[in-house]
Specification:
alpha/beta, 4-stranded parallel β-sheet, binds zinc ion
Length: 313
């Protein structure tokens, strides 16, 4: 080998060695923050903001009722290695999350620790009870309605809160999170224009919903909720309430019943056939159907289904 070639080989080797040590250092700096969210909606927001600096797993599936999630050993494994837990709060997960967090034995994510983030603190909350909540009222959430993510304005607020939290945990990546948050906000603003235009012809329409999952959603898009299929939150429908509901629907001209995918369609279908209304299965969460894989597509899906139901009525 001639000297000049030897020299260039040496240069290449040195460059390679440097590249390897650099990438080892950056791999170390970039070990991903492990985030566990209770719902797919929060997972979608956390992923939007966290990008490739985070690894996000949701506990509840999008087609499951988030009030009732059956604990699995795999959830404990996720929680054990989590740096950050993000929950909806307002007691939505009270039936299943606290014991899982305790059992995980992970000090980083215990209530009040730096890795415990209750997203409801960032959201505008509706239906905060003004009276003392008793069992007789059903499963009323005593701190207000926890289904707040179905207002995209709250999605924006929660995304900002998550960006703040991630920046505190990883100051070196703060600019990256801020940039991702900005991109998310820009897209959301644009989508909100489309969604508002889509719903404009139907503003003021009256609907009945199965559970009280939709006050934030209906307020955002200008619909009126006239009643629920459940006589009280979390209490299955009964004949007396159903008859009263049907009378009200006929009187008020309610033609659409919104039902979450995890409720039995029997009562909604019989109400529909007795009143000439349509049953529309709306998704409260990302991943409820494969056509709704993220926070933006969730609204596309629901508003698409709603506008099809309202058309021609
Ligand atoms: Zn609820």
């Amino acid at each position: 080998m001639r000297t000049i070639e030897k020299r260039s080989v040496a240069v290449v080797l040195m460059a390679l060695a440097l590249m390897i040590s650099f990438s080892a250092a950056s791999a170390q700096a970039q070990s991903k923050l492990k985030i566990v969210t209770t719902t797919t909606d929060l997972a979608s927001l956390a992923q939007a903001v966290g990008g490739d600096r985070v690894e996000v797993n949701a506990i509840a599936r999008g087609y499951q009722d988030p009030h009732f999630v059956e604990a699995k050993p795999s959830f404990l494994l996720l929680l054990r290695r989590a740096d950050l837990v993000i929950l909806v709060g307002l007691q939505l997960e009270i039936g299943w999350l606290p014991p899982l967090i305790t059992q995980s034995g992970n000090p980083r994510i215990q209530t009040g620790a730096a890795g415990y983030l209750d997203a409801s603190q960032y959201a505008q909350i509706l239906e905060v009870p003004t009276e003392v909540v008793t069992r007789a009222m059903g499963d009323v959430h005593p701190f207000g309605n926890p289904h707040y993510w179905l207002d995209s304005g709250n999605g924006r607020r929660v995304a900002q809160g998550i960006a703040q939290k991630l920046s505190t945990m990883r100051p070196a990546d703060a600019a990256y999170f801020q940039q991702r948050l900005q991109a998310f906000n820009d897209k959301l603003t644009q989508e909100e224009r489309n969604w508002n235009a889509m719903m404009q012809p139907y503003r003021g329409r009256k609907v009945v919903t199965y559970h009280r999952s939709w006050p934030n959603f209906t307020r955002r898009f200008g619909l009126q909720v006239m009643g629920e299929v459940e006589p009280r939150p979390g209490i299955p429908p009964g004949p007396r309430h159903t008859i009263e509901l049907m009378q009200m629907m006929k009187r008020e001209g309610v033609k659409v019943i919104l039902v979450e995918p995890y409720f039995d369609l029997k009562t909604p279908n019989s109400i529909a056939s007795g009143t000439g209304a349509k049953v529309v299965v709306l998704l409260p969460s990302v991943g409820g159907e494969k056509e709704a894989p993220d926070y933006f597509k969730l609204f596309d899906y629901d508003l698409g289904a709603l506008s099809r139901a309202f058309q021609g009525q």
